[in-house]
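Lab notebook page, bench 4
Experiment: in silico fold of construct C2
Operator: M.H.
Input chain length: 273 residues
Purpose: comparison with the prior construct
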Amino acid sequence: MLTKRIIPCLDVTLDRAGGSVVKGVEFVDLKEAGDPVEMAKRYNEEGADELVFLDITASFHGRENMIDVIERTADEVFIPLTVGGGINSLEAIKQTLRAGADKVSVNTAAVKNPDFIREGAERFGAQCIVTAIDCRRNTNIKDNPDKTILELEDGTPAWYEVVIYGGREGTGIDAVQWAKKVEKLGSGEILLTSMDRDGTYAGYDIPITKKLSEELDVPIIASGGVGSPEHIYEGFSAGKADAALAASIFHFREYSIPEVKEYLKDRGIPVRI
């Protein structure tokens, strides 16, 4: 059985020299958590399986600064590094991988031009392309008969809408249908973030996580809402995810990666200790 991966996520803003890691609730009300390179080193030493860096500034100027952060991080850590945020061209993918990233995460650019996924996978290999899907629950069923309807925890029927620009803009795209499409286009993994849960400490959005994990062959990385090791356990056991992304509980030292892995191991989840 493949081991489940624990992946700290570092949202990086480049508003100050060297960058800083921030965390908020539903992508707003950000507060600073630390230096990205130093935090990456700590997670590498603690036993994280991978790291994700998301450049939430994602401007052209920010992209150049982010390359510097990636290069400095790659010199210090020896686990796979995924970088996302504002990557919208094959040249940006090439620069990011050349700086030391192992994978890139694409989101808005892929929604606007799905062929970007296929082109990236053909040029750099499917294993390098992670499609980030940010989604939000939508209970308007009557006007959306073509959507994939799931049952929420309280029995309410809902579909999940893909959102872009950090959750600020809806697309009308069904998240399940979109996930199946990006898999066919060549995406090697899917990073699934529930905007309803991001930063809330309420746990992963299990209905959509489970649906994608059951329907797709590519690995699903659960993201959004972790407040305890139990939530990560639920993401693996109930959500059937392949990997668990978390931020706040690690950034603010509420739990360490070894603590989480021991908790999972004790409950029969295969992890790398």
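Observations: The first strand starts at residue 5 and ends at 13. Residues 80 and 243 are 13 Å apart (CA to CA).
Next step: discuss at group meeting.
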